[in-house]
Amino acid sequence: RWGGGANPPVVGELAVSHRSGVAAWTCKPGRNGETDVWVKLGYYGVTGMTWADGLLTGSSYQEKFCGSKQDRAVLHFAVRFRRPPDEAKRVAVAVVNGKTREKVHDGVGYGFRFDTKTDPAVALKIGVSWTSPEQAAKNLDAEIPEWDVAAVVAAGRRAWDGCLARVSAPDAPLWQRRHLTQNLMDVVLHPDVFTD
User: Fold this and answer.
1) What is the C-alpha separation between 21 and 151, in angstroms, rounded?
2) What's the rounded Cα separation, in Å, for the pair 152 and 144?
3) In what order do the strands lie in the sheet with 20-27?
4) Which residues are 195's β-sheet partners?
5) What's the start-to-end Cα distance of the chain, in Å?
6) Angle at which helices 174-188 and 149-165 cross, to 10°
7) R_g over Cα of the chain
């Protein structure tokens, strides 16, 4: 969940599965009563972004594949909103360094406007694939068929608990058990191959 302070303008939730994720948030009117919310999606290295039939698809060149020596891997994505946006258009996206807040790259993206006056809820799902945008959409539909963030969180917790149940170190010191848990998480966090 996100949304800081006692009365945040946006409160949201985010959950991920293997190759998909879902985000949902509720927006309050701005300081001047405005109800339009813009969602901008983009990244440097993105090519071929297309918005058609309620689905945003595209590809992004990655410098490495999961830390391997494979150069220039292509990650494909598909994004679907719970309800149609009131407006969609191409936008410039600045990629910012999270630590220094300095602009790193200019990127390409799409902006989506939602009027939240009658429906303050906005939600999106995203799927990824190493093979194609079409496969990313299939991964999105297969892994997260509904818009229930809590169900995705619960499924992830069950999967994680299942992984933890396979290993045990009850006699090890706490620091070693924590290290084991961290290493296990690193192994199961992104178990992908290029063939998807």
Assistant:
1) 12
2) 7
3) 10-16, 20-27, 121-129, 71-81, 55-64, 46-52
4) none
5) 29
6) 120
7) 19
Rounded CA-CA distance 27/110 in Å is: 20
Alpha carbons 4 and 24: distance in angstroms, whole number: 16
What does the chain come to in residues?
196
Long-range contacts of 45-50 (CB under 8 A, 24+ apart): 45/107, 46/107, 46/108, 46/109, 49/90, 49/108, 49/109, 49/110, 50/133
Chain centroid to Cα 43, Å, comes to 12
| Residue 107: closest CA among 47, 174, 175 | 47
Q: What is the pLDDT along the chain (196 residues), one digit of tens a residue?
A: 444 455 667 778 888 888 889 999 888 776 667 777 788 787 666 777 889 999 999 888 766 555 566 666 788 999 999 999 999 998 877 666 666 667 666 667 888 999 888 888 999 999 999 889 999 999 999 999 999 999 999 988 898 888 888 887 889 999 998 888 888 877 776 666 666 6
Q: How far apart are CA 48 and CA 34, in angstroms?
A: 32
Identity of residue 31 = R
